[in-house]
């Protein structure tokens, strides 16, 4: 099978926070496009991996970036020894063969690139390949999912309303402390006390959001920090390298964050 390499063999761990699983399943049943909204590192990618595994569908993930072109998604002609040959891009591969296509952080892509998905997000469910002179009807199993971080939206980087209104949206945030602690402990191998401490530190950093920080520490950062401690790094050093230094370059904000964290450390 062409898409066998995109299938997820083992269940990705995911702890539900609300009705996101039921919402996704309903949207998938109707083949409606889905937008996952939430801050960096809160579990959006893990969620879509879990859902692809649950549904038994291949998952093709594309990390959007500002240099991504429509050809990067749809495909292009390439010169080979036998001549010029058309190669499907990841989006076309998913459309043609029936995979879930996940466009991660879609707002990073140029707006003229994201327009290519519009015919796939309405009743037409087609992908026009102008350079190949082909219109690809979406396979019955094809489903489009994008992720979007509203915290980074601006006049320059934001999704057009004409794009956003085509999607069913699922809102993600950081889990409640007990749930987040359980996630950190499981994913990092940290003990329960360390996991709770790291979540407390994250909450202190998130309280500074809007006061010098664009975003607080993500669940992903806590997992990385827990793994550093498990590898033998002293906790204060792990917190500095895993949370404080990556989150801001402003020395005053670093000092304020370090002071807030120090009050949490044993």
UniProtKB/TrEMBL annotation:
Keyword Nucleotide-binding: yes
Domain ATPase dynein-related AAA per the UniProt entry, residue ranges: 34-167
Annotated Gene3D superfamilies: P-loop containing nucleotide triphosphate hydrolases
Domain spans labelled CbbQ/NirQ/NorQ C-terminal: 180-263
Nucleotide-binding among keywords: yes
InterPro entries referenced in this protein's UniProt entry, alphabetically: ATPase_dyneun-rel_AAA (IPR011704), CbbQ/NirQ/NorQ/GpvN (IPR050764), CbbQ_C (IPR013615), P-loop_NTPase (IPR027417)
Domain of life of the native organism: Bacteria
Keyword annotations: ATP-binding, Nucleotide-binding
Family: Belongs to the CbbQ/NirQ/NorQ/GpvN family.
Record-given protein name: CbbQ/NirQ/NorQ/GpvN family protein
Organism: Bradyrhizobium denitrificans
Lineage, top ranks: Bacteria, Pseudomonadati, Pseudomonadota, Alphaproteobacteria, Hyphomicrobiales
